[in-house]
Every structure is written in C-alpha cells, then in structure tokens.
Amino acid sequence: MKNERFERYIYMGVTAILVLIAAVFVVFLFLERNAVFAFLGKVRFVLAPVIYGAVLAFLMSPVYNWCYNTVVYVHDDDKKKEDEEKKIAPKKRFKSESFGNFLGKAVGTVISLAFLIVVVVSLSSMIIPQLYSSIVGIINMMPVYFQNGLLYKIAQFQHIVTSCLAGIDHEAGMLYAHLCIADAGTFQTALVDQK
C-alpha cells in the first residue's frame, strides 16, 4: 500500500541528501585536486590505446564504408536517385551474401589500413627532415653552450670568492682572493681567445 501523503517529503529528503553528497564530493575534488589529477592522469595513460583506437576507427570509417559499399553493392548513377526516393535497397553484386560481406569487409579493411599508412608516412616525411636539421643545429651549437656555461660558472666562482674573503682583514686572505680571481680571469681570457 502506497502512502501518497509522505511521498512528496520523501522525494525532497532524497534530493537534499543527494545535493549534500554532491557538495561534499565537489569540496573533496577541490581539496584533493592533486590526488584527483594524478588519478585521472593514470586513467588516461591506461585508456590511451583505447582512445587512440577509437579515434582512428572514427577517422577511417568513411574510407571503410565507401570501400565496403563499392564492393558489395552495384551502383548505377541514374538509378541511384530514383532508388533513394523510392527507398529501394541497392542491388547486391554477389549471390552469396556471406561471401559479399566477407569480401567487402576485407577490401574495406585493407584499403583503410593502406590509406592510414600513406597518411602516416606522408606526415613523417614532412616532420623528419625538420627534426633532423634541428638536431644537427643543436649538436653543432653544443660547444658554444658548454663554453657559455663554463664562463657563467667562472663568474659565479669569482663572486663567491670575493664575497667570502671580503671580510678578512689580513693581507694573506686578500692576496689569496686576488690570486684566485686572477687565475680565473686568465682562464676566462684563454677561453674567450679560443672562440
């Protein structure tokens, strides 16, 4: 037996509880967003092959469908418009429906994969030469990068030595500081001369 007097209050109570649960969930998402993003990153990593496969299947479906329809059905351009208006199914090429479906699926799959390979190879042929020239440029500039880094470290060393020994009043400490700076400066000058 259904009690309709309290049905409205039950619905309101269930709605209020669901709203509270949703609010707690949203607060949890904001407070633990690093953990949530880490979890979503792991889920994305695990589902990446499925996602890539679904995207490729979606992109290749027009090629597959066109090949399948071309192999399985007979197409007369004159009759095609009439058949579409009358909602008549197109005529099949093969008497055996299972052989026609098998052949259509096989041809559609092979041509779709060949089309995908052509697209990947053409994109790779555009990217690889640019990537090669970038890598060669980086390799050719590597000595300059190392030399600039070494000069920067020498300058840092000079600054550290002068700041550490600036508070020493006796002459031995200052003499040592000047000798270190002079040696580093000589080394720096030798590096610059090699350029």
Write the layout of secondary structure elements.
Blueprint: H1 7-31, H2 33-72, H3 77-86, H4 97-165, H5 171-194
Q: Could you list some keywords that capture this structure?
A:
5 helices, 195 residues, mainly alpha, single chain
Protein model, in words:
The protein has helices spanning 7-31, 33-72, 77-86, 97-165, 171-194. Helix 4 (97-165) packs across helix 5. The termini are far apart. Helices cover 86% and strands 0% of the residues. The model has no long low-confidence stretch (mean pLDDT 80).
* Average of the residue pLDDT scores: 80
Please report the number of helical segments: 5
> Whole-number radius of gyration?
37 Å
**Class by SSE composition:** mainly alpha
- Largest β sheet strand count, sense and barrel closure: none
Which strand-content bin applies to the residues?
Answer: under 5%
Report low-confidence residues grouped into runs of 5 or more: none
What is the number of beta strands? 0
| Topology order in helix (H) and strand (E) letters | HHHHH
Distance between the termini: 97 Å
- Binned, the helix content reads over 70%
Rough shape? flat
